[in-house]
Amino acid sequence: MSPNALIPSHRKPRRSASSRALRAGVTGGFLTLAVTGATVPANAAEKPVSETQEMPTITTALATSAARSADTAEQVAFNYERQALQDSVFAKAAKAAEKDKAEAVKKAKAEAKKKAEEARKAKEAAQARASRSDERTTLSAPSTSTSTATGSTATLIAFLKAQLGKAYVLGSSGPSSYDCSGLTQAAFNQIGIDLPRVSQDQSTAGTQVGLSNLQVGDILYWGSAGSAYHVGVYIGDGKFIGAQNPSTGIVERPLSYDMPTGAVRVL
User: Fold this and answer.
1) CB 33 within 8 A of CB 22
2) Which of 63, 113, 134, 218 is the most buried (most CB within 10 A)?
C-alpha cells in the first residue's frame, strides 16, 4: 500500500449519483449547465460545489438549417406550381389544336361537297345543252312527212301565213289582230276544228307528241300541259308561226328561236 493512501487530501471524494442535480439554460448565445451536489468535500479545489461550463450553442446552425429547409420546400412548391401551370397551358393548347383540326376537316368536307355539287350541276347543264342542240338539229332537218302540207293542212298553213305581220293584242281573236291562242283557234276554225279559247286548254286539246316527231299542223305550247302560257303552230322545216308579243306581232320563227316545251296533235 502507498504511504499516502491514508492521507485524506490525496483521495478524491466520491459523489453520490442520487444527490446530483442538473440545471441548464441559454445565456447570451451559450448553453449553460449547472451541476450541484449535496455532499461535496470542502477540499475539492479542482471542482467547486457549484460549477458552470459554457458551450457554444447550436441555435444559429439550426436556424440556418431550418431556413434552408424552408427555402427548399418553397422551391419544390414553386416547381410543382410551375409544372402544373405548364401542364394546364399545354393541355389547353392541345385542346385548341384539336378543335382547329376538327374545324379544318369540317371546312374541307364542306368545300369538297360544294365543289362536287357545282360539278354535278355543270355536268347536268352541259347535258341539257347538248340535248337541246340535238333536238334543234332534228327539228330543223327537212322531212317529207312534215314539209309538204296537203288538203286541210295546206289550208291551215295558208291561213297562218296570211296573218304574218298583223298586230298582237291580248284577248283579240282577229281578223286584224290576235293573241297567241286567238290565232290558233281562228286558224283551226278554217278547217272545221273547234279549239278551246285559251292556251292552257289548247295544250291538252289533242294527243301529246314528242318534239322529235312533229308533223305539220301540230300545236306547240310553252309551259306545262294544262298550264301553258303560250301556243303556236308547227308549219314544217323546223319552223312555227305564232302571235308572239306586242313588239313582234305575228311572226314566223325557227324552233331554235324559242324551243317549245311540248306539242299536241289534233289533225
Assistant:
1) yes
2) 218
Are 180 and 224 a contacting pair, CB within 8 Å? no
What residue type is 79 in one-letter code? N
Q: How close are the terminal C-alpha atoms of the chain, in Å? A: 174
Q: Give pLDDT < 50 ranges for the chain.
A: 1, 7, 10, 16-22, 24-38, 40, 42, 44-45, 47, 49-52, 137-148
Q: Which amino acid is at 137?
A: T
Q: How many CA atoms lie within 13 A of 139 on its CB side?
A: 28
Q: Tell me how far apart the alpha carbons of residues 179 and 169 are, in angstroms, rounded to a whole number.
A: 5
Please state, in angstroms and rounded to a whole number, the distance separating the CA atoms of residues 28 and 6.
46
Angle at 246 between CA 244 and CA 252, to 5 degrees: 30
Classified as helix, coil or strand, 18 is: helix
CATH fourth-level superfamily of 144-265: endopeptidase domain like (from Nostoc punctiforme) (3.90.1720.10)
Helices (H), the chain: 59-140, 144-147, 152-162, 180-189, 199-202
Residue 15 CA to residue 41 CA, distance in Å, equals 9
Please give the model's pTM, rounded to 2 decimal places.
0.47
What CA–CA distance (Å, rounded) separates 137 from 237?
11
**Residue type at 134?**
D
Q: Provide the pLDDT for residue 144.
A: 35
State the pLDDT at residue 118. Answer: 85
pLDDT of 15 reads 53
pLDDT at position 108 is 87
